[in-house]
Amino acid sequence: MELISESDDDQKFVIYKHEEMFSESFPCMKEIRRMGKLCDVTLKVDDQSFSAHRIVLAGTIPYFYAMFTTNMTESRIKEITMKDIESSALENLINYAYSGQVRIDIQNVQSLMVGASFLQLTKVRNACADFLISSFHPQNVIGIRQFADSLGCTYLMEAADHYIEQRFALVSQSEEFLSLQFDELVDIVRRDELIVNTEEVVFEACMRWVKYSEEKRAEVFPQVLAKVRLPLLSPQFLADRVAREDLIRTSHQCRDLLDEAKDFHLMPERRGLLQSFRTRQRSSEFAIGQIYAVGGLACNGDSVSTVEIYDPVSKKWQVGKEMSMMRSRVGVAVMNRKLYAFGGFNGTERLSTVEVYDPVKNKWAEGRAMLCKRSAVGVAALDDYIYVCGGYDGITSLNTVECYCPKSETWKTVAPMMKYRSAGGVAALGGYVYALGGHDGLSIFDSVERYDPVKDVWIKMRSMLNRRCRLGVAALNGKLYACGGYDGNSFLRSVEVYDPIFDKWNLVTPMNCKRSRVALAANMGKLWAIGGYDGETNLSTVEVYDPDADEWSFVPSMCAHSGGVGAGVIRNQPSRAQ
Prior knowledge:
With 578 residues, the protein is an alpha+beta fold. 26% of the residues lie in helices and 28% in strands. α5 runs antiparallel to α6 (122-134), α6 runs parallel beside α8 and α7 (141-151) packs antiparallel against α8 (154-166). The mean pLDDT is 91.
């Protein structure tokens, strides 16, 4: 209860305000309805009838507001027959009109969502969609996606598509996948955004689909195979598996596709003539994401806890929620739309602590600390794990590698690198973790090694063209890019790219600026080089590389950092209608 004293030119008056009036009134109306009193409309579905008050339905459900406040026939008649809605859903939603709450469970969620869509209860529909998203599983996500399509619920469809793309290998093992219609299958397997360790996963999924109903599906198989990126398969797999498949050997169209893939490997000098979507690596890097610049340095060289975020659509930076600790030379990785900051240097000591940012809550939380203090550390996310490699503990450069599982929040030590690498670059590509360059306190490296998580072993790979420490490294379009850094004499703006198919490094167009301590991120099919140090000044500038044009161009500079940041990209989620 609240009394508000006011006055005007004529007289003094008081406004009495009862804050709980509305919350007390609806339970009363619900009780009146339960007693069957004052009800002025009956809604019929099949053989069931539900009595209610027009004013309550019109005030809470948009569909009935339109029905009862216009000249529709239903605005005057006592009994209304409802169609296109199940009786149980209508009952639940009428109760929702009186109580403001509704129970959503796995048995009623679909009928409730259909009913909420029909009655234009957007918030209930969205709550049902969120419940289904929380229930996604490789065995049910395709069915949920089809249900969302039937309702025209773009939010739920996009969330299901994202799940399918992220977990295609598991989804393709499901009964729902095998039951897909031809056009539905093609829509999935053609996508750039499918995340698979190898194109073999896509090929085998398509083979399972066609053989599930071979008599009916063999006719359309050449069209399916045309969406598989056969040139990305290894020569051994093409010869030992693809070429021996009867469905391929007996089809002229399929043999042509196989020949195209063989030519791609046998005549690399002609690859420029063979370019098509089938020669393009699949990658979620084509999706739009927000780029996070984490920690780093102030203009006076001090470590900071600052975080800022770049939106590549609006082309603007804005300051985000800062970390609890100052961190320069910090390792950053993104997994399951959460951003992890590992270790770093706070201006006094090297850190083993970890912080985790949730963009939904806009909050940093303390994570499980690493087993070792590390700054100038390399980090990469691969499958369900994050690998933290090398770095500097305040005494010596490290070759140890820790593996973090976000699901169980546990750390374990895996095989150490062959080299002690501080200020090296680390990235995941093709099911492996690559470690590039860096130094051991005495020498700066051009060497590269690769970790196989299945065998728990590091092997030496082809060295870079230049020695580099404090470099930026990222994977894009199935290739590995190494940008900038320091070679012991010069600060670098050169950029080189590794093609694992050719096992070869090549130089591409250099950056516009010399950049050591540069953060490199892949986003929207491009590379973003963020901040760094040019030998004289800490940099806030940012430039972006277009691999198709082989060009670097400047984008807006950071607003709150002076280089030395870690960087990660959180992909945009489908937007939900309100």
